[in-house]
Amino acid sequence: MDLHNTFLHSDLDEKVYMKLLPEFESIVQINVLVYVDDLIISGNHSAALVGFKAYLGDCFKMKDLGPLMYFLGIEVAHSASGVFLCQQKYTLDIISKVGLLGAKPTGFPMEQNHKLDRATCKHLADLDVYRQLVGCLIYLVVTRPDLAYFVHILSQFMQEPRSEHSEATFRVVRYADSDLTLQGWCDSDWAACPLTRRSITGWLRMNCSMAAVICDLKWLKGLLLSLGVHHPKAIKLFCDIQSASHIAKNPIFYKRTKHIEIDRHFDRDAIVEGLISPSYAPTSSQLADIFTKALGKSQFDYLSSLQVGHFRHSCSNLRGILFSMKNNMCNYPIIYYSFLELFVSCYLLFSPCFSLTEFIFGDSLVDAGNNNYLLTLSKANSPPYGVDFTPSDGHPTGRFTNGRTVTDIIGQGLGGITFPPPFLAPNSQQDYYTIQAGINYGSGSAGILVETGSVFIGRIPLEEQVDNFEQTRAYMIGLIGEKEARDFLKNAIYTVSIGSNDILNYIQPSIPFIGQHKVTPSVFQDYMLFNLTLQLKRLHKLGARKFVIVGIGPLGCIPIVRAMKLFWFKKCSTEVNELIQGYNIKLNMELTLLNENLGHEAVFVYANSYDIFMDIISNHLHYGFENAKDPCCGGLFPPIMCFKAENDTNTSSVLCEDRSKYVFWDAFHPTEAANLIIANKFLNGDQRFTSPLNIKQLYKI
After folding, report:
1. For the chain, what is the radius of gyration of the CA atoms?
2. Annotated catalytic residue, options 165, 310, 620, 669
3. Architecture of domain 358-700
């Protein structure tokens, strides 16, 4: 809201009080952030907010600007999963303002052994340019705390900046082109100011730093509690001197610490009360270093990849907050702390804390583009595939449908910001931030059995997909350590959607004199299940704990099977569907045994895609579909495949006019509209669709 008649040019010495109506005192909470003549209002009661704004409108001349969209250079985006802050436009404005829009970005913001405090070059002729640029950067650290130390250093030369300082500032600008958890970090060099050179040695220095960090953490925890955000767990406090943690934890060291007795007792009390939990962080992994000193490129990149808040990402997600205490004897600009803390307090109310990691295994129903990098006949990298996939502006990505897959939609439903990249894509394992979204190992035409899909030449069978996950796990251990990698992997969701191609290979007619003799359906089901269970146990041994195993859908109803069985005008092949139902029953029983035998931490969820899809086909009009037999793209007769000729604006195969009215996208795969229904039942459905619990319940464990 914008206040029209505030007293902008006078000092306000009186205290201002606001009394809430008695009936709202115990249940309603309203938070107001005031910046000059602008107000940001948030709360936990919609009717109270409306009444409060109406009351302010009666008292003052005000204008309601609606939901917060832009404030002090910060873009605010609202979605069902939370509130997101972004300063991309503000960053580009800064870069453009200094004429560096086309300049080559730099890999790290400041030289490691800089001598800015000893600069000898001439003073700048125009001091305002330097001061304005540093002032802009101060506001940028709201969503880019990785720049805080460098802006802090540069702001110390505002009075008499020299050319070296200006060059360092431009370097920072070129770099800028490129469940609630609180954590504290104590840097062993926290008092090493390059200007004042104040220093304290050994564990004495660290205990002083710990006490200062605890004060700030205690204040922040109290602030969050007053806003209705409870943080019951002890806050992990990382420091890189083990003796400091030992002194804080163990009172037997009191004789060695008499000269810092107050700080020692303060630290000890915080541990006993359950406020903090001291943890050792090796110097090489000391995240506070990124806020207290200039680092070399390799160390800066490594620490950046460890940041929980993904500070290098241009748009910060406020749902995951890393509260890094950057205590330093040289004080940081107060404006940074006060503004960030106020913004955190204002928006935490709207944003539940979660961070989704999803590892996906399967076939073309979940493939996100791995087959694009294979020599294979099974590809979806040409139009009209992906025509409704918004993130790619309608261009094909390798997904075998017109839009999102079921796993894409589930990820978004759980709050995922980006889709897990395909494993074979370049830079899919570039850093810790990239892997945080997960990895997609799915491959079109792949199956549980290694030999499945050989007619398409290239594909990645399930066994090889698990091998690729093992590579990812090894990479993560090297990046963040075994314990951290283990904790990370056990909280991820592992979706396995595979088996359809094994069934299709089994039911296809054998070629005379070449085709192999087929085993009985029951033996084939057992063989599939044995190999699938083998890979699930491998994933469990590698650290997976939350599994979603998708049963095989009613393949007897898909266009390609009806064409193979010459059932063009019938809905489904009963023979094929009975084979699948038998397999699904055995799969569900096997998952029940795994839940019983692999410990209380492991949960295997069976996702009943068969019944969901049969319900869609049988009651397609109820779901808003008009056609539940024909593919939207392609046809039941040759050319059955969905494709588009090169450099041709007209689709070479048949394409329906309204894709939202069709259940099937092509002869093999459902449309995005059908995937939405399936994903929603997986996320929120009862035990008819997912057992023993749905995916949202699994995620919250």
Report:
1. 30
2. 669
3. 3-Layer(aba) Sandwich (3.40)
Residue spans of the chain under pLDDT 70? 1-27, 79-82, 101-105, 107-108, 112-113, 115, 117-118, 175-212, 223-233, 238, 240-268, 279-355, 429-433, 510-517, 566-570, 635-640, 644-653
* Burial class of residue 213 (count of CB atoms within 10 Å of its CB; 0-12, 13-18, 19+): buried
- Reported as half-sphere exposure (CB side, CA atoms, 13 A), residue 610 has a value of 22
Residue 32 is inside which H or E element, if any?
Answer: strand 30-35
CB 572 within 8 A of CB 556: yes
Map residue 55 onto helix, strand or coil.
helix
pTM of the model: 0.55
Which helix (H) or strand (E) segment holds residue 690: the answer is strand 690-691
pLDDT digits (tens, 9 = 90+) for 486-511: 999 999 999 999 999 999 999 987 65
Query: Residue 469, Cβ neighbours under 10 Å: how many?
Result: 23
Q: Provide the pLDDT for residue 317.
A: 33
Residue 259 annotated in active site: no
Domain boundaries, the chain: 2-66, 88-350, 358-700
The CA distance from 407 to 442, in Å, is 11
Q: Which residues pair with 3 in a beta bridge?
A: 62
pLDDT number for residue 79: 67
pLDDT digits (tens, 9 = 90+) for 554-603: 999 999 888 877 665 667 899 999 999 999 999 999 999 999 998 778 99
Instruction: Give residue 46's pLDDT.
Output: 76
Q: Which of 166, 364, 443, 691 is catalytic?
A: 364
Distance CA 290, CA 278 (A): 20
Q: Is-catalytic flag, 93? A: no
What is the structure's pLDDT at 202? 37
Six token digits for residue 524: 């084939």
Closest CA to 642 of 655, 629, 633: 633
Structure tokens at 442: 């799915």
> Is 246 an annotated catalytic residue?
no
Q: How far apart (Å, rounded) are the C-alpha atoms in residues 645 and 640? A: 15
Please enumerate in sequence order all residues whose Cβ is within 8 A of that of 110, keeping only pairs 6 or more positions apart, or say none: 150, 153, 168, 171, 172, 294
Active-site residue, from 345, 540, 666, 691: 666
157: tokens are 């030369």
Which residues touch 353 (CB under 8 Å, ≥6 apart)? 179, 180, 181, 319, 320, 321
Q: In 10 A of CB 550, how many CB atoms?
A: 27
Write down the pLDDT at residue 126.
76
Measured CA to CA, the distance from residue 417 to residue 407 in angstroms comes to: 13
